[in-house]
Amino acid sequence: MHPPLALHMHPMCAEIIEQFQQCHLDHPIGKFFGKCTDLKIKLDRCFREEKAVTRKANFEQSKKLKERLQTLRKEAAERSPEEKNFM
């Protein structure tokens, strides 16, 4: 199984998605007997690569967010008790 083949959701794989969908249109019976399998394999690989890129970007974003949070916590800990009571 593959995720929904919406082009806007998978811009990296748009060309392969179009080829795969065209193969299914061109071979309505052959698709059940492996006519489009090579494109399916390419599509699966592309989805894996796309997911890896997304995962890496999300990890980098979370690292930046964690660093920012640690900085804010450190600044809050360094405040004097009077300032803490004020806020």
TrEMBL record:
<protein>
    <recommendedName>
        <fullName>COX assembly mitochondrial protein</fullName>
    </recommendedName>
</protein>
<dbReference type="Pfam" id="PF08583">
    <property type="entry name" value="Cmc1"/>
</dbReference>
<keyword id="KW-1015">Disulfide bond</keyword>
<comment type="similarity">
    <text>Belongs to the CMC family.</text>
</comment>
<keyword id="KW-0496">Mitochondrion</keyword>
<dbReference type="InterPro" id="IPR013892">
    <property type="entry name" value="Cyt_c_biogenesis_Cmc1-like"/>
</dbReference>
